[in-house]
Design goal:
alpha+beta, Pnp Oxidase, Chain A, 8 strands
Length: about 150
């Protein structure tokens, strides 16, 4: 399970950066950085990615995903099955799909004598207003309990 304080932090921040790892049917690994992620509870993580991306295609074809979360004093890797719960967020002007991961295992990825001092710093570039609007629409879909 995810620690409750991490779930609360991720919810409070809205957009939260994580690294997602997938594998295709041939065993080729793929890693990507995303910020559209929302924990429904301690055992369920929703994420939104471009519908045609390698990440989306791999999750659809294998049903497997790993999510690396960095937060103060934590580096956790979550493993579990994933399924597409919404093929397209209608309010978004391009194809974005929502996937839901069932967290089966969480591993501490910190090496002894190390810690994480904060959240991965990132910033939107380009039109900040449009990105904020897009984030709001995607997060609304991720939080939808009816998916």
């Amino acid at each position: 399970m995810l620690p409750r304080e991490l779930v609360d932090l991720m919810r409070d921040l809205g957009v939260f950066p994580v690294v997602v790892g997938t594998v295709d049917r041939d065993g080729n690994l793929h890693m990507t950085f995303i910020t559209w992620v929302y924990p429904i509870d301690e055992r369920t993580i929703r994420m939104a990615v471009s519908s045609g991306s390698n990440t989306a295609e791999n999750m659809r074809s294998t049903g497997k995903v790993a999510v690396q979360i960095f937060a103060p004093d934590k580096s956790l890797t979550c493993y579990g099955p994933v399924r597409e719960v919404l093929p397209r967020i209608e309010e978004v002007p391009f194809d974005v799909s929502v996937f839901e991961m069932s967290v089966e295992r969480v591993e501490n990825s910190l090496f002894p004598g190390s810690t994480i001092t904060g959240i991965i710093p990132f910033a939107h570039t380009g039109n900040i207003h449009k990105m904020a609007e897009l984030d709001t629409k995607v997060l609304k879909a991720l939080k939808n309990r009816d998916l």
